[in-house]
Amino acid sequence: MFGLDCSGLPDGNYELGCKSYGVCTGGAVKLVNCDPGQVYDDNSGSCADPSSVTGICSQRRDCSNKADGLYADTENHCKTYYTCYNGEFKGHNFCSKVTVFDEVQQTCNWPGAVDPPCGTKGQATTSATG
């Protein structure tokens, strides 16, 4: 549920994205959504004003000349992406730890299936032989 499995995790707050987090208590998870205009602050474990938060969640993107859609955060190695709608920045989203954002497919995908700069599709690979 919510992309967070609390079984085996210590009690506490865990980031699910810039706009929400999960609270693990005794192996159970509860979803908490940030209020409009706030983002999750990993340092405090709660929602805060973006100006007081460090990291990707504090960074706004210029969507004024972009079509509606999802765009890779290339400076974050495409582990995150952001939404533009009606010329406005709507926030960041996160891919899982093993995937990157694929702008063509508009979803998170395996790096080997995604064109550079986000993925490695079409690039030669080398292997050690011994």
From TrEMBL:
Pfam families linked: CBM_14
One term of GO molecular function: chitin binding
Domain Chitin-binding type-2: 3-59, 60-120
InterPro entries named among the record's database cross-references: Chitin-bd_dom (IPR002557), Chitin-bd_dom_sf (IPR036508), Chitin_bind-dev_reg (IPR051940)
Signal peptide feature range: none
PANTHER family (UniProt xref): CHITIN BINDING PERITROPHIN-A, CHITIN-BINDING TYPE-2 DOMAIN-CONTAINING PROTEIN-RELATED
Record protein name field: Chitin-binding type-2 domain-containing protein
